[in-house]
Amino acid sequence: MKNRFLLSILCVLYIFAVSAQPLRDGFETLLGDDIFLQSDVSLVVYDLDADSLLFSHREHKLCRPASVLKVVTALAALERLGCDYTVDTRLLRKGNNLYLQGSVDPLFSYDDLKTLLSAVPQGMVADTLFADCSFMDSVYWGPGWAWDDTPWEFQPYISPLMLCGGCVEVKATPAGKGVPPRVECYPPSNFYTVVNEAVSKSGTDEKFTILRDWLDGTNVIRLRGNCRAAKSEKMNMFPSQNFFVAVAAEQLSAAGVQVGCTSFAATPAVCDTLAVVRRPIRDIVVEALMESNNLCAESLSYHLGALYGKRPVRQDMGPKIIKGYMNYTFDMPERSDVRDGSGLSPYTLLSADIIMQALRRVYAVPGIYDIFMQGLPQSGISGTMKHRTKNTAAFKRVFAKTGTVTGVCTLAGYAKASNGHTIAFVMLNDGLPKATPVRVWQDKVCDYICR
After folding, report:
1. How far apart are CA 342 and CA 330, in angstroms?
2. Which of 395, 394, 388 is nearest to 409 (CA)?
3. pLDDT surpasses 60 at 12
4. What mean pLDDT comes out for the span 297-301?
5. Residue pair 424/355 in contact by the 8 Å Cβ criterion
6. Where are the beta strands (DSSP E) in 174-306?
7. Which of 2, 89, 347, 374 has the most CB atoms lying inside 10 A of its own CB?
8. pLDDT computed for residue 24 by the predictor
9. CB of 94 within 8 A of CB of 272?
């Protein structure tokens, strides 16, 4: 009887091995692509419903995850802070002074500012409008962030008070031939200056550019070249907290509230709260995943860092909490490291296996999985996956976080296979300066998984 039982077990294992071989052969064929003559990849594919590893290749290699790190940051934030956590921006009053108290709300809008300031009594004469930036230190970028990624919106100057992501949107529209294009800026403010040196449809080949004089440290936005079609750019403002308080003062003045001056100071212990704008953490997570918003990911990191209970929160506190969470929850290699929340830092190194463990953890917690599925871009439909996998079996069936920096292109998320199973996958590609051929290969892998 015992020998018969062992024989049955061996037969089952043999059948599984034989049936799994074509699957492995397919992945091996994909790894024979010409792009791997000059580049490398770490790949893990896992069947979540069957709780079984389907394929792995160099899964323990430490790689730069780029924005796929946001999967880990979002998971740590939802688990450690809770799904009902909020990021608050407050307006307070003490005597004739007003205080704007921020905590890095990455989605704080111009309308939010108007709502907050509407709580100021009409006709009030404010001696000083203070900006309270005591939540965090003055280090506005993470370690190793590229200095030449400014003045673009994906690398804002982080502060506790962020208005419109610390950016101004500049829209240019061609006017009559040979005349300057029409320019609109949002939010409007005197904090920045627009110099329109461009012309419309002039017939020259000079490239049309919209750029802030960031090397000079000024907020002068210049338009140059030949504007042939409508164009929009978002420019970060320096420093972001000064931009916030300047626009706030202008809004108060327009509403008939006199402001003597603006300054920076911590809010007194005893104050009257006039208004609060509360941002649900789930909104921040969804934006971080869907649009790969770096500011949203860094906001989550700072609020994780606040768990230390110290003010101001230092930039390195959040990554330490994230790494501690991962060490406690996952099987972490010794040399792996987390240095920021967004994946911009070249010093952040993780393996595909670690990220797979995070995806499996997300899938196991229904409330968190629901938020992730709302935030993860859907292939061919939304976010950073909007233009991918069309005309393949993966169209609409993949929900994944993308990551791209020079030389690195990553993808991690979930796919629906033809048998209805949910498949988790991680692809960490590096070694190619251009992302396009890597994305083509990644889409082939997604297509194969879904088939």
Report:
1. 20
2. 388
3. no
4. 98
5. no
6. 182-186, 193-196, 199-200, 209-212, 220-224, 226-227, 231-236, 258-264, 272-280
7. 89
8. 86
9. yes
